[in-house]
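Subject: complex prediction, re-run

Hi both,

The earlier run crashed halfway through, so I resubmitted it with identical inputs.
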Amino acid sequence: MMAAQMNGGAARMHDDDSDDEGLATTLVEAMQEDDGDYDDVADGTGVQVTGDDLQARLAAAATPLDFAAGLPARFTSYDNYCSLFHFILNSDGPVDLELPTVYWAWDVIDEFIYQFNSFCTYRQKAARTGENPEEIQVLRENPQAWGCYSVLNVLYSLIQRSQMNEQLAAIKANKDPNTVAGEYGQRPLYRMLGYFSIIGLLRVHCLLGDFTLALKTLDDIELNKKAVFAKVMAAHFTTYYYVGFSYMMLRRYADAIRTFSHILVYVSRTKGFQKNSQFDSITKENDRMYALIAICVALCPVRLDDTIHTTLREKYGEEFALMQRGGPEALPVFEKLFLQACPKFISPNPPDFENPENNVDPSEHHLKVFMQDVKNTISAPILKSYLKLYTTMDLNKLAKFVETDPEALRKQLIVYKQKNRQLRWTEGSLLDGEMTHTSDLDFALQDDIVHVSEAKVGRRLVDWYLRNLQRAY
Amino acid sequence: MTTQPIPAGSRPEHIDAYLSGLDRYNPETVSTFQDYVQLQCENQTYDAMSNLALLKLYQFNPHLTRDETITNILVKALLVFPSPDFSLCLHLLPPNVLDANTATDDLSAAVRKLCVLNELIESASYREFWTAYESDDLYADLVADCAGFEETMRDAIALQISMIAREVKKDFVQGSLNVNDDNLTPLLQRYGWTVEGDMIKIPINKENEAKTMVFRESVAFNQFQGVVRRGFEQAA
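This time it finished cleanly. Structure:
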């Protein structure tokens, strides 16, 4: 049974692969030809800085800012990005640049957003604690630094310059993207920056709490292993994290689980071959994704891939069991895992320096809203465990079992039924989906009688047949 | 995003143009989006994407915020429960809006008031929803702009009941829909529900049927690709 499912999955992934052949050959050629390693940049040995100031600036743009960097360093870094992007976007015609490394385009977008994110968090914290009046004064005087409008502007401009959405649409329609790429979009520099800016937008929208728009941003990108972002492990990983998270916030838990599972299985299978530093950086993120998948599965029990299930039990066994059991004791566990695994949410505007206490951490806000749904959903596992045992049952009897009164139980049943129906992606853009039942258990009320029904999966014979057929040769 | 996508062609063209381009970030479009919210309130339509775009504009430009538009958007979102729309709107509001200790302005108070209704409706506490709704005059003010709020809410609740029950006590329906005997009859007629004694019968639909199903395996031809190919290879 399990084998059959996994086989089916493999067959589907295979389909996906063939769809995207065009994308892989056209967009990533540049990356595949040059197989340099980004590790070298950090050492400063692998890049040819031929006295060219520009190359140095390009490398700098992709280099992580020191974690403890103070305000001046952050402002300088912002100015550097501004002038670099201005140069790339607004020079007379396309800039003729050789990319310092294969991963440069991803690293630069990644670092740009990371610094924006970290600046907003820093400013928020400064305003909240109010400890350092001089710093607050500087922050007040520079409200435009790392503004969300300018960050979005950079990302959108890079996408437009490279005609990236048009190119992706052309590829989807099996046409040559070069016909719509324009003089900028044909060059690897613009092409890669434009492409990764779309992933960047996904991330920024998610950080700002706009989960719908986050998913909408990826309308033109098909999520599969052959997509361009999959060539850069960190990009691959980031994309799935934010897509999965957005699905979770849209309460599409089944889709979130599918998204997280996909990347976690991929990581666990390729662990052996990934040796560059990119991989190290994502192991921490890996744990966060396991925490998120634990939350989703607790809210919407589905069968997980075996390897994921095992790892999940290793990493979060205790928490997972508590959440699955439901009830009020589970709530703090949900909160803890959510805060541990959520993106570092930001508020787009300068904080209220006058009233430090007004600057609530955005993560707290999103948590509060999310927990509302959790509170409604956590009675489901208990109900399910009882309903599974019966085909008909009296509501009053069930109420005694779960130690609640019949009217409260009726509400819980209505909610259970609602949660059981979820929009689930089948094809098209990420926001599309069909209404499906997530659980195999269904029921209806006839006054106080609960009629329970189950959707059973018939025997799967094809894989068995194919395997044995092969043996017959 | 929601379970109720807007019918094709019902979104005005200029709004559609804003939403698909960068004008969705342009503060100058705020008043157009606001008018559109007003229009949705008047003619009982709902466009989640457009409303979220307006909330995002407010998020970026707090000085443009108009309290009654925000509460109107939230009220509209209440009506499409159990879709997550209400939550999605909350995510775009200022982070301290739910914090009763610090956010003491009128808007935050109103948002928290609406959250109470949302919690009740999402936990299927329909009777309590109506009690809370009638307990405070502020609610009447908040939904005043939104034409047909109570009727739409009743229909939405009735839909949820019809999805779970085939037979249900009349008391429960009356409480859930907050109607008296006289007003119940026309509603039941419209829904096609029938009264038998103190019970109400709801016609069977896909959801309240709860039929045991067996999923058969679906077989695609390309699963046999290998077998077929091998057949040719061997022949050659």
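Confidence is low (pLDDT under 50) at residues 1-51 of chain A.

- K.
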